[in-house]
Amino acid sequence: MSKRTPEAATVLVADDNLANLELLSGLLQVEGYEVVCVVNGRQALETLRSRPIDIILLDVRMPEPDGFAVCREVKSNPDSRFVPVVLVTASTASADRIQGIECGADDFLSKPINREELLARVRSLLRLKQFTDELESAETVLSSLALSIEAKDPYTEGHCDRLSKYSVALAERLNLPEELRVALRRAGTVHDIGKVAVPEHILLKPGPLTPEEWIVMKQHPLVGERICVPLKSFRHVLPVIRSHHEKLDGSGYPDGLRGGEIPLTARVLQTVDIYDALTTSRPYRKALSPQEAFTLIRKEVELGWWDGSLVDEFEAVLANHMSPLLDRSAQ
């Protein structure tokens, strides 16, 4: 079997027993891995914050804090939650395994360490991490593409970032599941990615679109859905991309959905999207104040376009938790 080059992966090993550290680091270094050794939980967390780590081996009983606590913190941090964690323990008690699973551990190693088992588990978890990294890279490319579309119009600067923040804040108020909050954060950035297929003379037109131009514009939710559909992690994002231009009375596009046929996540994003559009200056009008924007939105609620309950909840979000953003249009 060919050995891996040292730069292929970096393994963080945390154990207060120096003999165990030497054993694990020796076995891994022979295989070409770069190994970083620490002797307690605090050093493990500091190392993880200071440099890229591909996989972590944690002794369960080490001090300051123990392996369970370190694992829990690693998995609760968005920046490190996809780093594989292997808990190393001499205990055979099922309670320790259960606690490790509850902390988010990806695998376990029993002491005394078996070389073949160690290397097999490390290789397996690194393959999974590679898939995760590739997925994150694909998401990054999509986000960059979406932001490049936004950058074409100087009047929409920061629009995607605001929609992500607004949508997540509203989702939290509605107690939506974490997976839908993540979907809304992503959708805030990529919801209009289908506009990549809209010619610039239509996309940046300062006045009303002709009927022919509207036909082209109304295709962008479908194009955006097709762009993102290969990413399985975007399964909750796709309905937002496709349906955020629908209206409750069925007059929206692309499918003419009515009422509850429109996914809740799409209604959340369209609520904050409309607000942000109204409170952003355009070539043909100045930005409305938050109060003016909500007055206009409620008139459209009466027309049967938008979900009035979500409008009320979003206004409460801005008033209670995001007051600095209320002054954005005045800047």
Describe this structure in words.
This protein has 331 residues and is of the alpha/beta class. The protein has 2 domains: 6-132, Response regulator (Rossmann fold), CATH 3.40.50.2300; 152-330, Hypothetical protein af1432 (Orthogonal Bundle). The protein is 54% helix and 7% strand. It has 15 helices and 5 strands. It has a 5-stranded parallel sheet, with helices on both faces. Helix 6 (159-173) crosses helix 12 (264-278). The longest helix is centred in the middle third of the chain and has 37 residues, at 115-151. The protein starts with 9 loop residues before the first strand and ends in a 5-residue tail after the last helix.
Give short descriptive properties of this protein.
Hypothetical protein af1432, 7% strand, disordered N terminus, 2 domains, alpha/beta, 331 residues, 54% helix, Rossmann fold
Brief summary of the model shown:
With 331 residues, the protein is of the alpha/beta class. The protein has helices at 18-30, 41-50, 67-76, 94-103, 115-151, 159-173, 178-190, 200-203, 211-217, 220-228, 238-243, 264-278, 290-302, 308-320, 323-326, and strands at 10-14, 34-38, 55-59, 85-89, 107-110. Helix 2 (41-50) packs parallel to helix 3 (67-76), helix 6 packs antiparallel against helix 7 and helix 6 packs across helix 12 (264-278).
Tell me the layout of helices and strands:
Blueprint: E1 10-14, H1 18-30, E2 34-38, H2 41-50, E3 55-59, H3 67-76, E4 85-89, H4 94-103, E5 107-110, H5 115-151, H6 159-173, H7 178-190, H8 200-203, H9 211-217, H10 220-228, H11 238-243, H12 264-278, H13 290-302, H14 308-320, H15 323-326
Parallel strand pairs: 1-2, 1-3, 3-4, 4-5
Helix pairs in contact: 2-3, 3-4, 6-7, 6-12, 6-14
